[in-house]
Amino acid sequence: MTNPSADDARPAPAGRASAPVSAGVDGAAGAVPLLHLVDVGKNFGPVRALSDITLDVPAGQVTALVGDNGAGKSTLIKTISGIWHQDHGEILWQGKPVHLHSPKDATDLGIATVYQDLALCDNLDIVANMFLGQEPRHFFQVDEIAMEKAAKQTLADLSVVTVRSVRQPVGSLSGGQRQAVAVAKAVMRQAKLVILDEPTAALGVTQTRVVLDLIQRLKSQDIAVIVISHNLTDVMAVADRIAVLRLGRMVTVGPKSQFDAQSIVELMTTGTSARVAPPAGTSQPAGQSSGSPSEH
Ligand SMILES: Nc1ncnc2c1ncn2[C@@H]1O[C@H](COP(=O)(O)OP(=O)(O)O)[C@@H](O)[C@H]1O
Ligand SMILES: [Mg+2]
Asked: What's this model's pTM, rounded to 2 decimal places?
Protein backbone atom coordinates (compact mmCIF):
# COMPACT_ATOMS: atom_id res chain seq x y z
CA MET A 1 0.00 0.00 0.00
CA THR A 2 1.31 3.40 -0.84
CA ASN A 3 0.80 6.16 1.63
CA PRO A 4 0.52 9.59 0.10
CA SER A 5 2.78 12.11 1.75
CA ALA A 6 1.54 14.87 4.02
CA ASP A 7 1.76 17.17 1.02
CA ASP A 8 -1.24 15.39 -0.46
CA ALA A 9 -3.36 16.93 2.29
CA ARG A 10 -2.56 20.09 0.48
CA PRO A 11 -4.57 23.26 0.48
CA ALA A 12 -6.71 23.72 -2.63
CA PRO A 13 -6.44 26.98 -4.59
CA ALA A 14 -6.97 29.84 -2.18
CA GLY A 15 -9.76 31.56 -4.12
CA ARG A 16 -12.21 28.77 -3.38
CA ALA A 17 -11.84 29.26 0.37
CA SER A 18 -13.04 32.82 0.63
CA ALA A 19 -16.76 32.36 1.20
CA PRO A 20 -16.67 29.61 3.85
CA VAL A 21 -13.75 31.16 5.75
CA SER A 22 -15.62 34.40 6.32
CA ALA A 23 -18.33 32.52 8.18
CA GLY A 24 -17.15 31.39 11.59
CA VAL A 25 -18.82 29.04 14.03
CA ASP A 26 -22.53 29.17 13.22
CA GLY A 27 -22.07 32.34 11.27
CA ALA A 28 -20.25 34.26 14.04
CA ALA A 29 -17.95 36.74 12.35
CA GLY A 30 -14.23 36.23 12.83
CA ALA A 31 -14.20 32.84 14.53
CA VAL A 32 -12.72 30.33 12.09
CA PRO A 33 -13.59 26.83 13.27
CA LEU A 34 -10.84 24.23 13.39
CA LEU A 35 -12.80 22.03 10.99
CA HIS A 36 -15.48 23.22 8.61
CA LEU A 37 -17.43 20.97 6.29
CA VAL A 38 -19.28 22.58 3.41
CA ASP A 39 -21.99 20.68 1.49
CA VAL A 40 -20.18 17.38 1.90
CA GLY A 41 -21.75 14.44 0.08
CA LYS A 42 -20.77 10.80 -0.16
CA ASN A 43 -22.39 8.06 -2.22
CA PHE A 44 -21.90 4.32 -2.12
CA GLY A 45 -23.13 3.38 -5.58
CA PRO A 46 -26.83 4.31 -5.57
CA VAL A 47 -26.88 4.91 -1.78
CA ARG A 48 -26.56 8.57 -0.81
CA ALA A 49 -24.91 8.07 2.57
CA LEU A 50 -24.30 11.82 3.08
CA SER A 51 -25.91 14.83 1.37
CA ASP A 52 -25.10 18.53 1.79
CA ILE A 53 -23.44 18.18 5.19
CA THR A 54 -22.36 21.56 6.53
CA LEU A 55 -20.79 21.48 9.97
CA ASP A 56 -18.42 23.55 12.10
CA VAL A 57 -16.19 21.86 14.66
CA PRO A 58 -14.58 24.49 16.89
CA ALA A 59 -11.45 23.93 19.01
CA GLY A 60 -11.96 23.47 22.73
CA GLN A 61 -15.56 22.31 22.30
CA VAL A 62 -17.32 18.97 22.24
CA THR A 63 -19.55 18.41 19.22
CA ALA A 64 -21.90 15.46 19.70
CA LEU A 65 -22.98 13.67 16.54
CA VAL A 66 -26.27 11.88 17.01
CA GLY A 67 -28.59 10.00 14.69
CA ASP A 68 -30.38 6.70 14.26
CA ASN A 69 -28.72 3.66 12.69
CA GLY A 70 -27.92 4.36 9.06
CA ALA A 71 -28.05 8.14 9.56
CA GLY A 72 -24.51 8.51 8.23
CA LYS A 73 -22.52 9.08 11.42
CA SER A 74 -19.83 6.52 10.66
CA THR A 75 -19.56 7.63 7.04
CA LEU A 76 -19.14 11.23 8.20
CA ILE A 77 -16.35 10.48 10.65
CA LYS A 78 -14.65 8.19 8.14
CA THR A 79 -14.70 11.04 5.64
CA ILE A 80 -13.15 13.39 8.21
CA SER A 81 -10.61 10.67 9.07
CA GLY A 82 -9.48 10.21 5.47
CA ILE A 83 -10.91 6.70 5.04
CA TRP A 84 -13.48 7.86 2.49
CA HIS A 85 -13.10 10.82 0.17
CA GLN A 86 -16.22 12.91 -0.27
CA ASP A 87 -17.91 13.00 -3.69
CA HIS A 88 -19.13 16.56 -3.18
CA GLY A 89 -18.27 19.57 -1.08
CA GLU A 90 -15.23 20.77 0.76
CA ILE A 91 -13.39 20.16 4.00
CA LEU A 92 -11.60 23.16 5.48
CA TRP A 93 -9.01 22.79 8.22
CA GLN A 94 -8.13 25.98 10.09
CA GLY A 95 -9.85 27.87 7.27
CA LYS A 96 -7.98 26.21 4.39
CA PRO A 97 -9.46 23.61 2.05
CA VAL A 98 -7.77 20.22 2.42
CA HIS A 99 -7.98 16.95 0.52
CA LEU A 100 -7.84 13.90 2.73
CA HIS A 101 -6.92 10.90 0.60
CA SER A 102 -5.79 8.59 3.37
CA PRO A 103 -5.96 8.24 7.15
CA LYS A 104 -2.34 9.44 7.21
CA ASP A 105 -3.38 12.76 5.64
CA ALA A 106 -5.87 13.25 8.47
CA THR A 107 -3.39 12.13 11.14
CA ASP A 108 -0.77 14.52 9.78
CA LEU A 109 -3.21 17.41 10.22
CA GLY A 110 -3.87 16.39 13.83
CA ILE A 111 -7.08 14.41 13.44
CA ALA A 112 -7.15 11.29 15.65
CA THR A 113 -10.06 8.88 15.54
CA VAL A 114 -10.72 6.40 18.33
CA TYR A 115 -12.93 3.70 16.82
CA GLN A 116 -15.22 1.51 18.87
CA ASP A 117 -12.91 -1.50 18.74
CA LEU A 118 -10.08 0.80 19.97
CA ALA A 119 -7.43 -1.07 17.93
CA LEU A 120 -5.29 -1.82 20.98
CA CYS A 121 -3.11 -4.91 21.42
CA ASP A 122 -4.25 -6.76 24.55
CA ASN A 123 -0.96 -8.63 25.00
CA LEU A 124 1.16 -5.46 25.01
CA ASP A 125 1.46 -3.08 27.94
CA ILE A 126 0.12 0.48 28.01
CA VAL A 127 3.45 2.05 27.04
CA ALA A 128 3.92 -0.26 24.05
CA ASN A 129 0.36 0.39 22.88
CA MET A 130 0.72 4.14 23.11
CA PHE A 131 3.87 4.14 21.00
CA LEU A 132 3.10 1.26 18.66
CA GLY A 133 4.84 1.90 15.33
CA GLN A 134 6.27 5.24 16.49
CA GLU A 135 8.76 4.17 19.14
CA PRO A 136 11.43 6.79 19.87
CA ARG A 137 15.00 5.56 19.40
CA HIS A 138 18.12 6.30 21.39
CA PHE A 139 21.35 5.03 19.79
CA PHE A 140 19.28 2.66 17.58
CA GLN A 141 17.56 1.17 20.64
CA VAL A 142 13.91 1.72 21.47
CA ASP A 143 14.01 4.34 24.21
CA GLU A 144 11.90 2.58 26.85
CA ILE A 145 12.65 5.15 29.55
CA ALA A 146 11.50 8.09 27.43
CA MET A 147 8.41 6.15 26.33
CA GLU A 148 7.43 5.28 29.87
CA LYS A 149 7.93 8.85 31.03
CA ALA A 150 5.85 10.30 28.20
CA ALA A 151 3.08 7.72 28.67
CA LYS A 152 2.87 8.46 32.42
CA GLN A 153 2.87 12.19 31.80
CA THR A 154 0.14 12.03 29.17
CA LEU A 155 -2.09 9.93 31.41
CA ALA A 156 -1.43 12.30 34.32
CA ASP A 157 -2.26 15.32 32.14
CA LEU A 158 -5.58 13.68 31.33
CA SER A 159 -6.13 12.98 35.05
CA VAL A 160 -6.23 9.25 34.43
CA VAL A 161 -5.48 8.09 37.95
CA THR A 162 -6.99 4.62 38.08
CA VAL A 163 -4.27 2.84 36.10
CA ARG A 164 -1.91 1.11 38.54
CA SER A 165 1.07 0.69 36.23
CA VAL A 166 1.82 1.71 32.66
CA ARG A 167 3.53 -1.68 32.35
CA GLN A 168 0.21 -3.53 32.76
CA PRO A 169 -0.96 -5.40 29.68
CA VAL A 170 -3.89 -3.58 28.10
CA GLY A 171 -5.89 -6.83 28.23
CA SER A 172 -6.00 -6.50 32.04
CA LEU A 173 -7.64 -3.05 31.98
CA SER A 174 -11.30 -2.18 32.43
CA GLY A 175 -13.30 -0.82 29.48
CA GLY A 176 -12.98 2.76 30.70
CA GLN A 177 -9.24 2.41 31.19
CA ARG A 178 -8.86 0.96 27.69
CA GLN A 179 -10.75 3.93 26.29
CA ALA A 180 -8.46 6.23 28.29
CA VAL A 181 -5.36 4.56 26.82
CA ALA A 182 -6.73 4.90 23.28
CA VAL A 183 -7.48 8.59 23.88
CA ALA A 184 -4.09 9.18 25.53
CA LYS A 185 -2.43 7.63 22.48
CA ALA A 186 -4.26 10.14 20.27
CA VAL A 187 -3.34 13.06 22.52
CA MET A 188 0.32 12.04 22.64
CA ARG A 189 0.38 12.29 18.85
CA GLN A 190 -0.50 15.97 19.10
CA ALA A 191 -4.09 15.60 18.00
CA LYS A 192 -6.00 18.84 17.55
CA LEU A 193 -9.26 17.00 16.88
CA VAL A 194 -10.16 13.76 18.64
CA ILE A 195 -13.10 11.79 17.25
CA LEU A 196 -14.66 9.24 19.59
CA ASP A 197 -17.06 6.63 18.21
CA GLU A 198 -19.48 5.50 20.93
CA PRO A 199 -16.85 5.79 23.69
CA THR A 200 -19.21 4.80 26.50
CA ALA A 201 -21.30 2.14 24.72
CA ALA A 202 -19.71 -0.80 26.52
CA LEU A 203 -19.13 0.90 29.87
CA GLY A 204 -20.76 0.86 33.28
CA VAL A 205 -21.69 3.98 35.24
CA THR A 206 -18.32 4.55 36.93
CA GLN A 207 -16.28 3.91 33.82
CA THR A 208 -18.57 6.17 31.80
CA ARG A 209 -17.79 8.92 34.31
CA VAL A 210 -14.05 8.35 33.72
CA VAL A 211 -14.50 8.74 29.97
CA LEU A 212 -16.74 11.82 30.24
CA ASP A 213 -14.16 13.42 32.56
CA LEU A 214 -11.50 12.57 30.00
CA ILE A 215 -13.49 14.35 27.30
CA GLN A 216 -13.64 17.41 29.55
CA ARG A 217 -9.84 17.26 29.94
CA LEU A 218 -9.40 17.22 26.15
CA LYS A 219 -11.59 20.31 25.95
CA SER A 220 -9.54 22.08 28.57
CA GLN A 221 -6.44 21.44 26.44
CA ASP A 222 -8.21 23.28 23.58
CA ILE A 223 -8.63 20.07 21.63
CA ALA A 224 -11.77 19.78 19.52
CA VAL A 225 -13.81 16.65 20.20
CA ILE A 226 -16.44 14.97 18.04
CA VAL A 227 -18.29 12.30 19.94
CA ILE A 228 -20.78 9.88 18.45
CA SER A 229 -23.17 8.59 21.07
CA HIS A 230 -26.52 6.88 21.36
CA ASN A 231 -26.64 7.77 25.04
CA LEU A 232 -28.47 11.09 25.27
CA THR A 233 -27.66 11.42 28.98
CA ASP A 234 -23.98 11.36 28.08
CA VAL A 235 -24.59 13.75 25.19
CA MET A 236 -26.37 16.25 27.43
CA ALA A 237 -23.62 15.86 30.06
CA VAL A 238 -20.63 16.44 27.82
CA ALA A 239 -21.59 18.23 24.60
CA ASP A 240 -21.25 21.93 23.88
CA ARG A 241 -22.84 21.52 20.48
CA ILE A 242 -25.16 18.91 19.08
CA ALA A 243 -25.41 17.86 15.44
CA VAL A 244 -28.36 15.68 14.46
CA LEU A 245 -28.06 13.51 11.34
CA ARG A 246 -31.01 11.78 9.71
CA LEU A 247 -30.96 9.76 6.48
CA GLY A 248 -27.61 11.24 5.50
CA ARG A 249 -28.64 14.85 6.04
CA MET A 250 -27.82 17.31 8.80
CA VAL A 251 -31.17 17.99 10.41
CA THR A 252 -29.81 20.65 12.73
CA VAL A 253 -26.69 21.70 14.56
CA GLY A 254 -26.47 24.18 17.39
CA PRO A 255 -25.49 24.83 21.00
CA LYS A 256 -26.68 22.27 23.54
CA SER A 257 -28.90 24.89 25.16
CA GLN A 258 -31.25 24.66 22.15
CA PHE A 259 -32.02 21.02 22.82
CA ASP A 260 -33.37 18.63 25.40
CA ALA A 261 -33.40 14.85 25.24
CA GLN A 262 -36.94 14.79 23.86
CA SER A 263 -36.25 17.24 21.05
CA ILE A 264 -33.12 15.29 20.07
CA VAL A 265 -35.13 12.07 19.81
CA GLU A 266 -37.80 13.84 17.73
CA LEU A 267 -35.19 15.35 15.41
CA MET A 268 -33.40 12.00 15.03
CA THR A 269 -36.57 10.09 14.22
CA THR A 270 -38.78 12.58 12.33
CA GLY A 271 -36.39 15.35 11.29
CA THR A 272 -38.37 18.06 13.08
CA SER A 273 -39.24 19.08 16.61
CA ALA A 274 -41.69 21.73 17.72
CA ARG A 275 -39.39 22.17 20.73
CA VAL A 276 -36.58 23.59 18.55
CA ALA A 277 -37.68 26.67 16.62
CA PRO A 278 -35.97 27.46 13.31
CA PRO A 279 -34.19 30.84 13.22
CA ALA A 280 -36.34 33.64 11.80
CA GLY A 281 -36.11 34.14 8.04
CA THR A 282 -34.55 30.76 7.24
CA SER A 283 -35.88 27.43 6.13
CA GLN A 284 -33.26 25.66 8.21
CA PRO A 285 -33.79 24.35 11.70
CA ALA A 286 -32.12 26.03 14.66
CA GLY A 287 -28.40 26.51 14.74
CA GLN A 288 -27.49 25.37 11.23
CA SER A 289 -24.94 27.61 9.57
CA SER A 290 -25.32 28.14 5.85
CA GLY A 291 -22.33 30.43 5.60
CA SER A 292 -24.58 33.41 5.02
CA PRO A 293 -23.31 36.44 6.96
CA SER A 294 -26.84 37.48 7.88
CA GLU A 295 -27.61 34.21 9.59
CA HIS A 296 -26.99 33.23 13.17
N1 LIG B 1 -19.09 0.74 2.76
C2 LIG B 1 -20.37 0.94 2.47
N3 LIG B 1 -20.90 0.47 1.31
C4 LIG B 1 -22.18 0.69 0.98
N5 LIG B 1 -23.06 1.39 1.75
C6 LIG B 1 -22.59 1.86 2.93
C7 LIG B 1 -21.25 1.66 3.34
N8 LIG B 1 -21.08 2.27 4.55
C9 LIG B 1 -22.27 2.81 4.87
N10 LIG B 1 -23.18 2.57 3.89
C11 LIG B 1 -24.58 3.04 3.89
O12 LIG B 1 -24.58 4.42 4.15
C13 LIG B 1 -25.64 4.77 5.02
C14 LIG B 1 -25.08 5.40 6.29
O15 LIG B 1 -24.41 4.41 7.05
P16 LIG B 1 -23.51 4.72 8.34
O17 LIG B 1 -22.65 5.88 8.05
O18 LIG B 1 -22.85 3.46 8.75
O19 LIG B 1 -24.64 5.13 9.40
P20 LIG B 1 -24.56 5.20 11.00
O21 LIG B 1 -23.12 5.11 11.41
O22 LIG B 1 -25.20 6.50 11.36
O23 LIG B 1 -25.35 4.05 11.51
C24 LIG B 1 -26.41 3.49 5.28
O25 LIG B 1 -27.47 3.44 4.35
C26 LIG B 1 -25.39 2.39 4.99
O27 LIG B 1 -26.03 1.23 4.56
MG1 LIG C 1 -22.12 3.73 12.60
From this structure: 0.81
